[in-house]
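Slide 14.
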Amino acid sequence: MKSLLVSVAFGVGALLCQGAYAQEAAAHTALCKDGTYFDGTTHKGACKGHKGVKEWMDKTAAKSTTAAASDDTATTKKSKKSKKAAAAEAAAPAAAPAAATTAAAAAPAAAAATTKEKHAAPTPAKDIAQKPGGGAGLVWVNSESKVYHCQGDEWYGKTKEGSYMSAAAAEKAGAHASHGKACQ
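Slide 15: predicted structure.
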C-alpha cells in the first residue's frame, strides 16, 4: 500500500511538472540550448549568446514565419526585376533632357566626382629621391614617427619630414631604430 501511494505521488508530480512546463513554454518563443528562454516577437537573433535554439516554442509562428519569408523572397525577386525594368525605361526618356544640362549644373557634378576618388597608394621608397646630406655615421630621423633609418636602409633620407643626425643624438631625442635594428 505504501509503495502504491509513493508511485501515485511520483506520477502526480510528473504530471504537474509537465503541465507547468507546457504553460511556461507557451509563454516563450524559444528554448535555448543552455536552458534559458527567448521571448521575442520574431525569431531573428533568438538565443544569440546562449548556444543557439534548442526548440521553438511557438510552432505555429515558426511555420508562418518561414512561409512569410518565402513570400518575401519571391516579392524581392519580383521587385528587383521591376526595378531593373523601371530603370531601363527611365533611362531612355531621360537621355534627351540630359543633353540639355548647362555648364553650371555640370560643375557641381564634377566637383562631387573628384571628392569620391579613391585614396592613392603610398609612393614606394625606391621611387623617392633621397634628401641631400647624410653620410657615414649619420642616421635619418623621421620627425613624424620618431623612427631612425640607417645608411643603406630603403627609407634613409626619403620620408616626408626628417633630418640627419648621429644615432646617439636620435636616441636621446626619443627616436628608435627602424624594425628594432640599431645601426652598425
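Speaker note: The chain is about 45% helix and 15% strand.
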